[in-house]
Amino acid sequence: MTPLLQVSDIAKSYGARIGCTDVSFDLYPGEVMGIVGESGSGKSTLLSCLAGHLTPDRGKVRFDTRTNGLRDTVKMSEPERRMLSRTDWAFVHQHARDGLRMNVSAGGNVGERLMAVGARHYGDIRDAATDWLGRVEISADRVDDRPTAFSGGMQQRLQIARNLVTGPRLVFMDEPTGGLDVSVQARLLDLLRGLVREMNLSAIIVTHDLAVVRLLADRLMVMKDGHVVETGLTDQVLDDPQHRYTQLLVSSVLQV
Amino acid sequence: MTEYNFAYLDEQTKRKIRRAILKELAIPGYQVPFASREKPMPYGWGTGGVQVSAAILTPNDTFKVIDQGADDTTNAVSIRRFFEKTAGVAVTEGTADASVIQTRHRIPEERLRANQILVYQVPIPEPLRFLEPSEVETRKMHSLEEYGLMHVKLYEDISQHGAIATSYAYPVKVEGRYVMDPSPIPKFDNPKLKMAAIQLFGAGREQRIYAIPPYTQVVSLDFDDYPFEASKAEHACDICGAEDSYLDELIVDDDGRRMFMCSDTDYCAKRRAQGHVGAQSAEDAA
Question: How far is CA A202 from CA A4, A93, A96, B59, B276, in A?
Answer without folding.
Answer: 8, 17, 21, 69, 72
